[in-house]
Design goal:
With about 210 residues, the protein is α/β, with parallel strands linked by helices. The protein has eight helices and ten strands. Keywords: Oxidoreductase.
Length: about 210
Amino acid sequence: MAAPIGIVGSGAVGRALAAHVVASGRHVVLCNSRSPVTLDSVVENLGPKASALETSAVAAADLVVLAVPWHMVVPLVEQLPPWHGRILVDATAQASHLRLPQPHDLGGLSSSEVVQASAAGARVVKAFCTLPASVLALPPASAAGRRVMFLSGDDAEARSAVSSLIDDIGYAAVDLGSLSTGSALQQPGGPLAGLDLRLPHDAVIE
């Protein structure tokens, strides 16, 4: 059985991703800034493959998706235990709107580079951040094709693992390469932010 996917954050993005993970047949563990019992209704709606745990336990998964508001990112990540090479998927956005952003000044760094600097020992991959939560909640695939999901990161093995997850839940994974370049393309204000693209089901991505 595949290891459960950890999702830190139970807002619209976290819930949408959790639903897709469960629909793919994998298990998911969720957390929020309060306590697991506040997620009882969310877990019940997701079904038996979902559960809620404390943040530290969710963050101990082999692959963790970070889906919290930007102002929470650095304080939250810095208080978590060392990652020891585990994969941290950065699904955050440092602005409230993808296409008309007012992003925070990050001193020339991409948002994922800030996450990487805060998460000691994590292999950070940027993904699940270009689509608005309302679109992310829709089926990843339809008769029109699979929705494109971009990813980027500096570790090839981590990118491969996240690409496999993206494919498993029904999206078409498009690898943008390095964290600095790919994250800048995906984050608010970048050319890929907010784009809802589809690839035919028989398309081959190279």
